[in-house]
Amino acid sequence: VISVDSVAGLATLRQEINLTAQKLPLDLIRKVTAWFKVVYQKYQSEAVGYLYYQAAMGEGQFVPPTQTATGASAKYEEAPRLEGWQVVGTIHSHGSMSAFHSGVDDRDEEFFDGVHVTIGRVDSVPEYSCSIVVQGKREIVDPSVLVDGMAPAEEIPSTWLATVKEQAPRGLELLFQVKADKLYAAYYEGKLSESRYKTDLRQLELEEAAERKAKAERKALAENHVPFLNKGGMRDVDEVYPRSFPLENRDWGKKKKGVHSGK
């Protein structure tokens, strides 16, 4: 048998993990979060608990095992056996850190099929990172996929998103800043879509960058070729020859046009 990445004529299937059980009740997540907050206030430590599911009733519950508070981690016992209930995952906290699945989490949960939730920032405004693990593969999912009562991003009204605007552009040269301000005003008032505004603003910034470059080049050229009168009231040789022009290549034998010879 020879393994292959694809077979000609067959569509490539994307690996996907979907939850088929009932979602976790929002009230349960609130209680677990409140417990994590109390544990952190008392021990400045992480904490962990097991998720159980009863298929016949379609119900879930959270059971924390006996554990030792150790700051940035938690040492805990195996999941206790509950008659009629199946262990289907874990919920653990990250204390004051953000919610993410760390390397330790990956190792602990690699062969632990089920739902795994990390709750971070329990010292302030909690954050949630949710995932489903199956046969060593982790699928990060939106909290709304696992928690009943949390709205997915798709349900957010577009009018709500439209109320949040980009910051006004600043720091452009005067002429371009005036144009940018007019562009932003149209965008802010809803007369211009965000995508069109970004495209037009980017074009304006490119034009300004080109103008800055051109100005810098003109300035460098002017500084390298500055005519002035010498002590005798005559224009300096650098009016005819730029200062960068090699001395040995200058035609000293020829009279410069418009320069008095003294005769």
From TrEMBL:
Pfam families: Prok-JAB (PF14464). Residues 43-122 form the JAB domain. GO terms for biological process: proteolysis. One of its GO terms (molecular function) is metallopeptidase activity. Keywords: Hydrolase, Metal-binding, Metalloprotease, Protease, Zinc. Coiled coil: none annotated. This is JAB domain-containing protein. It comes from Candidatus Falkowbacteria bacterium CG23_combo_of_CG06-09_8_20_14_all_49_15.
